[in-house]
Amino acid sequence: MEMTKDYILKTENISKIYHSGGVDFKALDDVSINVEAGEFIMITGRNGSGKSTLLHQLALLDSPNNGEIVVEGQKTSHLHEKVKMDLRLSQLGYIFQEYALIAELTALENVMLPAMMLTSSKLAKKKAIELLTKIGLESKYKRLPSELSGGEQQKVAIARALINDPTIIFADEPTANLDTIASKDVLEIFKLLNEKEGITIVMITHEPEELVYASRIIQLSDGKLI
Amino acid sequence: MMRQLKLPFYLAFQYIRRGRKWTLLLTIFLMTVAFINLVFIPSLFNGIIDGANKQIINTMTGDIYITPPDGVDYIKPRDQVLQRVKNIDGVEAVSSKTLVPARLKQGNISGSWQTLAINPNNEKNVSNISQKIISGSYLNAQDTDQIIIGRQIAGGSDVEENALSFKGAKVGEKVNLVFDGMTKEFTIKGIFNTNFVESDKRAFITEKALNKIVPSTSNRTNTINIKISQNANEDKVIESIKQSGIIGNVYPWQESTGLMKSVSNSFASINVLLSFTSVMIAAVTILIIIYVTIINKRKEIGILRAIGIKPYIIISSYVILSAVYALAGIVIGTAVFVFVLIPYFQIHPFVLPICNAILVLDWQNFALRAQTILIVSIAAGFIPAVIVTRAKMLSAILGR
Q1: What's the 3-state SS for chain B?
Q2: Domain A40-61+80-225, CATH 1.10.10.10 — does that match?
Q3: B64 in a domain, yes or no?
Q4: What's the structural domain count of chain B?
Q5: Does B391 touch chain A (CB under 8 A)?
Q6: pLDDT tens digit sequence for B22-55
Q7: What's the predicted TM-score (pTM) here?
Q8: Which of A94, A117, A125, A163 to mutate: most B Cβ within 10 Å?
Q9: ipTM score
Q10: Chain B contacts of A120, Cβ < 8 Å?
């Protein structure tokens, strides 16, 4: 395994091309970024600029056509999907724009689920309750996603992303579907996680007022870094 | 690893517990219907074959029958042979039937129906003709001028072979037995209906009546019918009869099935074909039900993969879910079959010219069909789950 020092996350000239209707569309064009541990990075840009595509590559949910992504010194381009899955499980947390909770599981069970892959259900439950308490959902952990507000569902998604103590959290427009108060709540949680627990956060946003939370801003346009 | 193995059960349990109740009920209902469909036709065919076989045993041959040795017309001395057979271990009752060499005639209508001379008391213990009297009464051993005739001989507008019958003969009416150069008048004492056309084309008089007309038949018979005890082994009883020194040919009832043998064989062949079709229909139904269920969970499966849940856990959870659907369908289907359908058809059997058919469950076959449903369901859960977990994760999550 080739090691790359200093950066918790690094991309080297990654490109992503989509083929649709016989036409190639370059969603990412030769993007290279370095992320240091403890950074709070916000990715911004217009619709179709490649923000979500970049985040999907960084979180190993998709693979670039060219280039390399290095996670904690580990090159990932040739890794088997099983290994990438292990990385997603134990080192990377991902928060979707639309919460992406399992409808049949309660808030507690949704949070516990990734931990049950690595530890006993008893320990997973204990930790999930701690996390839900920390983000202010201690009274609602037995509720199903359909019984929670959008802000509460997003908090559950955050707790789920945190359950296995990841080093990096990726968030794809986590406040897009939330009102102002709920958005602020979510951003404050990210801030706390970043400042107090040193978790690296890479987040996409459309909202200029949210950029104040970032330690660094990455701007994309037509798949290229500006 | 062990804790990971619990996860599929955990997920499947939560899907069932918290999933849409109507979807769950509809899925289990369809599974139940698919299972009942799979077992109904074979059970009906089993019922027809079993019913026809019982008709042969109960109205014609008994469990075992003895005929005279080849080239000989009669078994004799009848009473001693009957006694000797009766003493054999496993034999419950014996009866003799002697063919009356005469034609039956009423007015201008005559026919070559089989008329047999019996000892009514012995016959009562071997066949169920005495219980099938629909008009009048059964013979008495002392009757010399009375005859009982089958429904197909008596005839009537609702009788299958009315055109070849007496077209509505009634109890109390006279019929003649026309022997070679001699006629003997009998009064119809009873009409019986076994619901087995072949059996209902026969008439019975007493041995005493026959001996009076044809004295040479005294203490002779053409056939001895034997009923064996419930727990007796047919082959062993046959062997004992053969070894007892009785001169005659000993056959199990199956040797006298005649036309019914080919009917049974045809039903067995149709059964195989229909079973294959039923299995295919059940398989496709189950595949569609579970495929639709899993395709609807495509996004959820994508999310599970995204948060690091291994594909084998996801696939296993859907296989377990499918197996639970199938088991529920099998259990409910079995309950409906055993507690509703079987009792219903016992009260309202299918009335066929060969028997009143009820549903007869062959448990071995039943278990095989339950296994088939289970295996098909597991495959129906496995295949789409594998397809979905192999699809692009983002496409599944984003619904592309």
Answers
A1: CHHHHHHHHHHHHHHHHHCCHHHHHHHHHHHHHHHHHHHHHHHHHHHHHHHHHHHHHHHHHECEEEECCCCCCCECCHHHHHHHHHCCCCEEEEEEEEECCCEEEECCEEECCEEEEECHHHHHHHCCHHHHEEEECCCCCCCCCEEEEEHHHHCCCCCCCHHHCCCCCCCCCEEEEEECCEEEEEEEEEEECCCCCCHHHEEEEEHHHHHHHCHHHCCCECEEEEEECCCCCHHHHHHHHHHCCCCCEEEEHHHHCCHHHHHHHHHHHHHHHHHHHHHHHHHHHHHHHHHHHHHHCHHHHHHHHHCCCCHHHHHHHHHHHHHHHHHHHHHHHHHHHHHHHHHHHHHCCEECCCCEECCCCCHHHHHHHHHHHHHHHHHHHHHHHHHHHHCCHHHHHHCC
A2: no
A3: no
A4: 2
A5: no
A6: 888 988 998 899 889 888 888 888 888 888 888 8
A7: 0.76
A8: A117
A9: 0.88
A10: 3
